């Protein structure tokens, strides 16, 4: 199949590359000329495990192409996929300007029947909006179908998630579009849920909102557990073994970050408001999450009411491991907070330090874990990078000023920390003193 993917961000680049890997001819389009030039040379703008190898392989085998020319990409395409950003507008709703601009360009370049698929996360009803824009700008000259095919990949495991998807959701208005998109997904050997466009758009928001709800729920239980000496990791394990609950997304910590959960919960609340539905559960989810990252600050303040002259080693800048994405990362709030209170802060991250330096003014960082920790008065874990999980705690103890670890990601077992000589505070578990 010949496919044109518009937008080469996390979603467009990964799904375009994976569609080429399963045998399609894919042209990825972006407005950003420098990005496209670099992609043509196999230089990947984001850090995503396994992506570079797959891009290079498919360029080499001539299934994957990059261009800034939409007309060229669309010319022979049977499927055109919209994968541009839908960031949060100041009002909380999704900003659809990029999707609408792309719909105008698709309309102007339509040259025959195509299935126009929205993969970007968009409010329910956007498919119809895209359809009317394309009709207007193609002057009704050609037949086309609009469809919704939301993306469920996670950053940090995007290639794996796409090649091993749990399901594909296809929202269509015609049998013809259904056949094209079902065929496209056949090589993934996955369950395909076929619905109308609106249901498909709703499935995406509902999925992200539900996952965010699970996280805020377990974080509230964690905060409560701290008052009673209960251990939230065991609570989650005991709950999760019930198949109706499930064990995933019950890791308590400093709350969710990233480009999607914060903006998508906010967009869904806004969608509800517009039609007079008050999404009170989701509002509470946001409220809990907004406060959760500051639990770490409370735990540091408990040990050092005065941070003046203290050196803090912050481990992890990215919002989650295996990505260089800094969007809504806890470090963005916590590092300036500690610095404002007079602390000297040095941060470690194996990948995200350059992006972080753009977000956090005056950021001091190192890519050497033990160098970061040296002479610190407390080690604060914000991202559960493998390097941090595996660090040699006896070496850490020799290097630090004070053996104090404040762990926002619950990466160590309490039993291992009991006789370690560290003061170890984590989320939702008894503190070891
Ligand atoms: N990042 C993620 O993990 C996931 C994102 N999504 C959704 O997918 C969509 C895309 O997200 P990301 O890939 O993270 O976005 P991104 O911001 O990383 O990339 C968007 C790309 O689109 C390009 N673009 C914008 N307007 C264009 C136009 N008119 N023509 C051609 N290219 C254009 C930009 O230059 C940029 O390279 C969003 O709606 C997001 O909510 C869904 C699942 C996962
Ligand atoms: O729409 C999207 O963009 C994507 O959003 C999330 O993916 P992502 O944000 O990349 O990463 P997650 O692994 O979901 O983590 C999100 C945040 O939740 C936190 N989290 C996750 C799981 C958990 O149990 N506890 C927890 O605090 C992570 O630390 C991270 O800050 C969803 O998992 C994807 O299915 C979805 O496609």
From TrEMBL:
It is an enzyme of class 1 (oxidoreductase). The active site is at 260 (nucleophile). SMART domains: UDPG_MGDP_dh_C. Substrate binds at residues 152-155, 204, 249-253, 257, 320. NAD(+) binds at residues 30, 35, 86, 121, 155, 263, 327. InterPro entries: 6-PGluconate_DH-like_C_sf (IPR008927), NAD(P)-bd_dom_sf (IPR036291), UDP-Glc/GDP-Man (IPR017476), UDP-Glc/GDP-Man_DH_C (IPR014027), UDP-Glc/GDP-Man_DH_C_sf (IPR036220), UDP-Glc/GDP-Man_DH_dimer (IPR014026), UDP-Glc/GDP-Man_DH_N (IPR001732), UDPglc_DH_bac (IPR028357). Pfam families: UDPG_MGDP_dh, UDPG_MGDP_dh_C, UDPG_MGDP_dh_N. Signal peptide: none annotated. Pathway: Nucleotide-sugar biosynthesis; UDP-alpha-D-glucuronate biosynthesis; UDP-alpha-D-glucuronate from UDP-alpha-D-glucose: step 1/1. Its EC number is 1.1.1.22. One of its GO terms (molecular function) is UDP-glucose 6-dehydrogenase activity. Residues 313-414 form the UDP-glucose/GDP-mannose dehydrogenase C-terminal domain. Keywords: NAD, Oxidoreductase. The keyword NAD applies. Gene3D superfamilies: Cytochrome c1, transmembrane anchor, C-terminal, NAD(P)-binding Rossmann-like Domain. It comes from the Bacteria. The keyword Transcription does not apply. It catalyses: UDP-alpha-D-glucose + 2 NAD(+) + H2O = UDP-alpha-D-glucuronate + 2 NADH + 3 H(+). GO terms for biological process: polysaccharide biosynthetic process; UDP-glucuronate biosynthetic process. PANTHER family: UDP-GLUCOSE 6-DEHYDROGENASE TUAD. Belongs to the UDP-glucose/GDP-mannose dehydrogenase family. This is UDP-glucose 6-dehydrogenase. It comes from Fictibacillus phosphorivorans.
């Amino acid at each position: 199949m010949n496919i044109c993917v518009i937008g080469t961000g996390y979603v467009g680049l990964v799904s375009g590359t994976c569609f080429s890997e399963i045998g399609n001819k894919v042209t990825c389009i972006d407005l950003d000329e420098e990005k496209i030039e670099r992609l043509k040379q196999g230089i990947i703008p984001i850090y995503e495990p396994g992506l570079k190898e797959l891009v290079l392989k498919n360029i080499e085998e001539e299934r994957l192409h990059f261009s800034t020319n939409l007309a060229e990409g669309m010319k022979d395409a049977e499927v055109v996929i919209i994968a541009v950003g839908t960031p949060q507008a100041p009002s909380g709703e999704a900003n659809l300007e990029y999707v609408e601009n792309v719909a105008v360009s698709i309309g102007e370049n339509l040259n025959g029947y195509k299935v126009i698929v929205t993969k970007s996360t968009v409010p329910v009803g956007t498919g119809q909006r895209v359809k009317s824009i394309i009709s207007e700008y193609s002057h009704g000259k050609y037949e086309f179908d609009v469809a919704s095919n939301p993306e469920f990949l996670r950053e940090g495991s995007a290639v794996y998630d796409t090649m091993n998807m749990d399901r594909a959701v296809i929202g269509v208005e015609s049998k013809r579009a259904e056949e094209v998109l079902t065929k496209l997904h056949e090589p993934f050997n996955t369950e395909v849920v076929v619905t109308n466009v609106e249901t498909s758009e709703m499935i995406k928001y509902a999925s992200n909102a539900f996952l965010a709800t699970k996280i805020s729920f377990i974080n509230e239980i964690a905060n409560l557990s701290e008052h009673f000496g209960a251990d939230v990791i065991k609570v989650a394990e005991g709950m999760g073994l019930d198949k109706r609950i499930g064990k995933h997304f019950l890791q308590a910590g400093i709350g969710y970050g990233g480009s999607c959960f914060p903006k998508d919960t906010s967009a869904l609340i806004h969608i509800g408001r517009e039609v007079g539905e008050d999404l009170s559960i989701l509002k509470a989810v946001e409220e809990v999450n907004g406060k959760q990252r500051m639990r770490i600050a409370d735990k540091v303040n408990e040990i050092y009411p005065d941070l003046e002259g203290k050196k803090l080693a912050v481990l992890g800048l990215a919002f989650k491991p295996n990505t260089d994405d800094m969007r809504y990362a806890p470090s963005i709030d916590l590092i300036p907070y500690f610095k404002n209170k007079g602390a000297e802060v040095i941060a470690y991250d194996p990948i995200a330090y350059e992006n972080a330096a753009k977000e956090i003014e005056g950021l001091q960082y190192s890519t050497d874990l033990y160098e970061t920790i040296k002479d610190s008065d407390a080690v604060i874990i914000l991202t559960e990078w493998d390097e941090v999980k595996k660090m040699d705690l006896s070496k850490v103890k020799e290097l630090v000023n004070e053996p104090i670890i404040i762990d926002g990601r619950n990466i160590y077992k309490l039993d291992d920390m009991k006789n370690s000589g560290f003061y170890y505070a984590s989320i939702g578990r008894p503190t070891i003193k």
